Amino acid sequence: MTRKKIEKEYNEKIKKLTKLNRFYFEKNNPKVDDREYDTLKKDILNLESRYSYLRSKNSPSVIVGYKPSKNFRKVSHRVPMLSLANAFDQDDLNNFEKKIMNYLNQTNRLEVEYSAEPKIDGISASLSYKNGNFITGLSRGDGKEGEDITENLKTINDIPQKILSRDFPSDIDIRGEIFIQNNDFKKLADKFANPRNAASGSLRQKNSLETKKIPLKFIAYTFGYEKGLKITKQSEFLKKLKEWGFKTNPLNKTIKGIENLMKNYSEIENKRGSLDFDIDGIVYKINDFKLQKRLGYITNSPRWAIAHKFSANNGVSKIENIEIQIGRTGALTPVAKIKPINIGGVVVSNATLHNEEEIIRKDIRIGDTVLIERAGDVIPHVVSVDLKLRNKESKKFIFPSECPSCGSKTIKEYNFITKKEDAVRRCTSEGFECEKIAIEKIKHFVSKEAFNIDGFGKKIVENFWRLNLVKLPQSIFTLDYSVIEKLDGWGKQSVSNLKYSIDSKKTIPLERFIFALGIRHIGLENAKLISKHLLSKKNFISLAETQKFNDLINIDGIGETQINSIKSFFANKTNLKVLNDLSRLIKVKDAISVKNNGLFSNKTFMLTGKLEGMSRAEAKSLIEENSGSIISNVSKKLDYLIIGEKPTKRKIEAAKDLKIKILSQVEWLKMFNKTS
Ligand code: IVH
């Protein structure tokens, strides 16, 4: 890579980090999880160490936290509030100790004693006490300057306003963590992603009466400026803090040797799910203040302390219940309801157990202590059960042999292709007869790739079902809007928006119509194939009368499984009624047999941004119907870039560089005399 390219990559990463910081620190609304954030930070630091010419005032190697918000007066910390280096495994800890030994010019004979303090994941604060009185309280800010949040801090019961103990220093900054307990967080869970954000948000209220409403806690663990402190060890200081009236972490310990640190780490990690506050690691500090002083600091953090972080993608919790969810195709999916646990900044309270076989294989039971993994956007799942912690009275989980929604028998189908029984157990009811399946089918019907009815979300489907407004998909097109207008949460405007969304989707291409019916094994791709073969809704519906299902075998890509599924769809009376009613209420556009010499023959397109009144799927079909094709990268092979609302700037710039023709949605539609 050339220097220019490296600088470009570096600056982009810095820009992204600055933006994420703003969301996190100013708006208390993180845009990515901690893991992604940490990776970005690490990437920047790696680039800086490889290429010494890279520098930015916004680099994490320069800034400690984030600049204070404008809502509060800024005050300099008398002693900076630094951060800690991170360790993730035993190797990191060995290295940490080795560096200390080298620095002190000691062989390993010196057995170091550590103060091991579970690291509460909250917001740090520095409290100045003069002659025993709490005077000023600051947030950490950027480490040098904090925000004056004294009034808000005064609302916290754990913060003593006056300390009378004779040995309390005459002037000292007591530092610690403000946080919110997990059970108090539950009440705020729909406003904040995790307890840390909730604490930060409440602490930064302009009006301290608002802060007072939130039960914030304070745990003290260190000091900044001090005058008159006569103590030689961190463990002693923690003891004194308690005597002076501060709360300290009940799980603090003094420990010698890395192996014992590791033992304590896994004990606490296992307890993590049952604690009533969030911790994201353990802080180890050299216990002896004399040694701390000798070791001193490197730029932003002390040499004498390190944070041993818990994994950002897994955690231990307890299964409180196992619920069975029923999907659109009748599949019964077991879901573990777990004691909420913070994994990488996201509070997890559900974990999928996949299917019956998985439960049997791992012998997962209600009450078990389990390891939960949450990686990227994948649904959290149970990795393993800690059998040592299992209650002796616990019983095996019996998977229901009847559908919990409609009572029909549940079965595991035989798969003729794999010649094995399916892992998934299904409800044998015929679709709309089972309440849960019917609701899921309607959700599918209105979804993006099917009818794409804007604003008709999952909650509305559930609500309308409960109120008997929509029991079958066709009812969507005969809704009594005067009834909806009177419902809680609805008004004239929202009803008129809904009506507009529904009315504008009364014409639909055949392929999306077939897909919307939710026939098992007929996804969008198969629906397209069938649509291209049958061409009209009439031909599709007449499959029921002519029973010419086997003709479909001529379609490349359609096999016996799909045909059997279509057959059983047409054998069901409710499905036929849905089809007939829909036929009267909406218009299904015939498929156009694809021309190879269409208007866009040999032309490639790319879409960026949101199109008006048209989904991506629809735009793609339009292009393909006219013999064009879609590609996913801006390259010399691209002929047209179509831009919608909020396009990706990078793509536009790349297209400009390559002199690729850029079209607005209107210009593109004009190409074949269409208006949106
Ligand atoms: S000592 C220089 N002790 O962790 C010493 N910090 O990345 C730094 N934290 O900003 C502070 N528990 O918010 C210390 N027992 C503990 C802690 C702790 C949590 C937080 C604190 C700090 C961050 C360091």
Can you tell me the CATH class of the domain at 63-309? Alpha Beta
**Count of individual helical segments:** 24
Q: What level of helicity do the residues show?
A: 25-40%
Query: Which shape, going by the Cα principal axes?
Result: globular
**How far apart are the first and last residues' alpha carbons, in Å?**
44 Å
Rg from Cα: 31 Å
Helix vs. strand class = alpha+beta
Q: Sketch the major β-sheet.
A: 5 strands, mixed
Strand content: 15-25%
CATH architecture of the domain at 63-309: 2-Layer Sandwich
Calculate the mean pLDDT score and round it. 90
What does this structure look like?
The chain is an alpha+beta fold and 676 residues long. Among the domains are: 63-309, D-amino Acid Aminotransferase, Chain A, domain 1; 453-504, DNA polymerase, domain 1; 508-589, DNA polymerase, domain 1 (Orthogonal Bundle); 604-670, BRCT domain (Rossmann fold, 3-Layer(aba) Sandwich), CATH 3.40.50.10190. The protein is 34% helix and 22% strand. It contains 24 helices and 26 strands. It has a 5-stranded mixed beta sheet. A 5-stranded antiparallel beta sheet has the order 16-15-14-17-18. Strands 5-4-7-8 form a 4-stranded antiparallel beta sheet. Helix 1 runs antiparallel to helix 2 and helix 16 (510-516) packs across helix 17 (524-534). The two termini are 44 Å apart. The relative contact order is 0.06. The mean pLDDT is 90. Bound molecules: 2-(butylsulfanyl)adenosine.
